[in-house]
Amino acid sequence: MINAAHGGNDLGLDIRLDLSANLNPMGMPESVRAAAVASAGCWESYPDPMCRELREKLAEKLDEDRENIVCGNGADDLIYRIASALKPQRALICAPTFAEYGKALRENGCEIREHILRESEDFVLTERILGKLSVVDMVIICTPNNPTGMTVPRELMERIAAECEKNGTYLIADESFIGFTGREKELTALNYLGRNTIVLRSFTKLYAMAGLRLGYAVCGSRAAADSIASAGQYWSVSAPAQAAGIAALDEEDYVSKTVSLISEERQFLSSELSALGCKVYPSEADYILFRSSHELGEKLLAEGILIRSCKDYSGLDGSFFRTAVGLHDDNEALVCAVRRCLDG
């Protein structure tokens, strides 16, 4: 066993390279780190439970109403708060996708229906989903999807949002990885933000802030935002996380460099893994889904390299793996190790 419920070395394995978690390989921006540390002077007081300054800055950056923005202890926290606050009777999720959607919904007594993404279509979301939207109260779509890395085409997202609005169905668009695409403004569901639409974002991945935990939801209505904000713990975002988030929103050059690095290294890694006989699927995110021998994960672990086994994802099996796109030296180390594992 190389992974528990998620990526990251949560089993405390002896490794030298962790490519199982999809974090920005450039590391946390220094301004963000400095802001978190500088907030130490207020750690003896409770943090602002409303995250007023952070929400104001998000509202300005996104051109959205501050009152429709809810901040949380990572996007994962907000997934559970959404399920608790809105309490859908029936929800539609894709398969494969992030497991916490299903877990949060089940814990709130929701019946879950799966829309199967086909390997023959490279796990891309297609118009097949449109006919399933009228019989559920909520649909959750991850774009780019985890673990496939594929985005929802703009025209399809517009049609999904319109159908959900017509049917009174909540559309939850998880855009935690959209900052890596370089096409955020084109692809975001914020372009179609109706009353029933909620867009989730995370600081964790793009700004390498996993230990600080910070995410936010942009809601199409004040009522939904108030309901979600009331569902969770009162002080859900720590003072250092709020300070780090405020600083991160100014890091536009860092994001631009990240997009260029990920694009270049993703192409390199995809090409090299394909040349080794792996089946590599298209991705627009900072990770790649590929298929190889079932034993590859354990063999790489023996070399001190951890990737994400996808056998616990609905619709996948033990031959599917996800690797983060790292810095070039790390990607080369992975390719060399995969070559040794498959040759020997």
UniProtKB/TrEMBL annotation:
Listed cofactors: pyridoxal 5'-phosphate
GO MF terms held by the record: pyridoxal phosphate binding; transaminase activity
Signal sequence coordinates: none
Cited SUPFAM superfamilies: PLP-dependent transferases (SSF53383)
EC numbers, comma separated: 2.6.1.-
Aminotransferase class I/classII large domain ranges (all copies): 17-330
One Pfam family it belongs to: Aminotran_1_2
Keywords, in A-Z order: Aminotransferase, Pyridoxal phosphate, Transferase
Keyword Transferase applies: yes
Top-level taxon in the UniProt lineage: Bacteria
Alphabetized PROSITE patterns for the sequence: AA_TRANSFER_CLASS_1
Similarity annotation: Belongs to the class-I pyridoxal-phosphate-dependent aminotransferase family.
Protein name: Aminotransferase
Species of origin: Ruminococcus flavefaciens
